[in-house]
C-alpha cells in the first residue's frame, strides 16, 4: 500500500497563505514519487522472486546445505508451535478451519493442473521426437498389411467352405427326415424292436429273441385275419391268455395280501400294554405298543409252518474267506472247518509293577506261546497298541519285537506293529481289562476275601472261562533285561512313527512308516508313507546276546527249583485258608437258620 500523509490544518490568515501553497505543492510531489516507487517496487519484487528461486535450487543441489536448512526449518516450526504462532487444524476455530481447508483445496487443485500441464508438454515433446519415421518401421508396416490381407482372404475362403458344408448338412437332414417318414409307415419286426430299444446297446441274443417274438405275433395276427374257420380262431384265442398281465397287475395286491397276513400273525402272537402313555408315532399315526409272546426266531418258524402259501428264501450262512490276524490283547484266528473268523480274549497278570519294554515283551510272549503253538499256519503277526514312548514306542521295543521274537518263533515271516492315534483306546482290550477288574471288585462285595495275588488268580480262573488267564513272574522280566544290548540304534522321528515292519528275508532291517499301510509288502520300503529304516547288522551284539541267553538258562534252572518249593508252600497255605473259609461259612449259615427257627 502507498503511504498516507497526514497534515495539520493551518489557520486561514494572510500570513499563512504562502505556507499553505507550499504544503499543497509538496503533496503533489509526494503522490508522483509514490506512483514511481510502486512500479519499481513491483519490478524489484519480481527480481527478488527469481533470485529466491535460484537460491532454493542451489540449496537443493547441495545435499549438506539442504539438510541444514531442513533442520533449521524444523526447529523454527517447533518454536512457532510452542509460542502458539503456528497452530494445527485441531487448535483452530471452525471459521479458521474452513479457511485453511479452502486454501489447501486450492493448493491441491493448482498442483494437479501443473502436473497435467507437465505431462502434456512431455507427451508433445515425445511425439515430436518420434515423428521421424525410420525405414524399418515402413517395412514392418508393409509386412503387417500384407499379412492382414492374407488373413482376410483365408477368412473369406473358410466362410465359403462353411456355407457349402451347411448346405450339404441341410440336404442330409432332409433325406433323413424322408427316410424316417417312410420307416414309420413300415411294420417290420426289426423296426419295432429298434423303436422299443430306443438306441440302447443290448446283447445280440436279446435282440434276436425280441425280433422272433415280433415275428410270431405278426404271423399269428395274419393267420387269425386270413383264416375263415371259427375253430382255428377259437384255438388261437385260447393261446392268447392274459395270465402274465394279470400277475403283473396284481403284484401290488399280492404284496398287500402278504403284509396283512404278517401283521395279523404278529397281532395274534403279541399283547397290548394297558398304559395310555405306552404308544409311539408311526407314519403320522399314534399306535399303541405291543409286546411279543415269544422270540422272533420261534415266531418265524411258526409263521413258516402255518403259512404254506408264502415261500421264504434264506441267504447263505457263511461267506467263504480266509483270514489270519493276531492283535495285541485280542487274538483273531481262522477256524478252517467252517471258514469263520473267531476271536479269543486273554489276560496276563504279574506281581511286578513294571511297564517298561521288558515286561511288555514277556506279557506278549505268554500269549504267543499258547496260540502260535496251536496255530502253526500263522506266519504273519499284526500287533496293535497305543503309542506311549515309555512303554511301546521306543528303541528297546523296536529291537525286541523284530530281533527277539523271530528267534523264539521260527514260523513267523512278517511282523507288523501299529500304533493308534493319540486319544484312541485299545477297544476290546480295554473292555476285557475292565471286565476283569469289575469281577474282582464284585467278588470282594459278595464277601470273598482276595488277600493276595495267588487268590486273585485262582478266583479269576474259576469265574472266567471264555478268557485265557496266565501269570508273569519277575524272573522272566529280569531275564529279558539281560538279553538287551547296551548300545541301541535310535530312530530319528520316533514320535511320528505309526507303523514299523519286519520281514524274514531281510531280518536285520526294520522299516518305519508315518501311517499304517497294508498294500505294500514288508520286503521293501512303503511307497506311500516310508520314513526310513534301521539296520541291525551282525556284529558283537549277537555274541553278547548268546552269552546272556546261556546265563539266563542257568539262572532259570535255579529259579525253577526255588519256584517249585514256593508253590508247594503256597498250596498248603491256600488249603488251610479254604478250610477256614468253609468253617466260617457253615457257622454263618447255622446261625441264620437258628434265627429263623
Structural features, described:
This protein is α+β, with helices and mostly antiparallel strands. Among the domains are: 44 residues; 52 residues, no CATH class; 59 residues, no CATH class; 249 residues, no CATH class. 60% of the residues lie in helices and 11% in strands. The chain has a five-stranded mixed sheet, covered by helices on one side. Helix 11 runs parallel beside helix 12, helix 11 crosses helix 15 and helix 15 packs antiparallel against helix 16. It is extended and about 145 Å long. The N terminus is likely disordered. Keywords: Coiled coil.
What labels would you give this structure?
597 residues; alpha+beta; 5-stranded mixed β-sheet; 4-stranded mixed β-sheet; 16 helices; 11% strand; extended; disordered N terminus; coiled coil
Give the topology, please:
Blueprint: H1 17-61, H2 63-83, H3 94-130, H4 135-185, H5 189-197, H6 204-226, H7 230-239, H8 243-249, H9 251-268, E1 270-272, E2 279-282, E3 285-288, E4 290-292, H10 296-306, E5 325-327, E6 330-335, E7 340-350, H11 357-374, E8 380-385, H12 395-408, E9 414-419, H13 428-445, H14 453-463, E10 467-472, H15 474-483, E11 499-503, E12 509-513, E13 530-535, H16 540-596
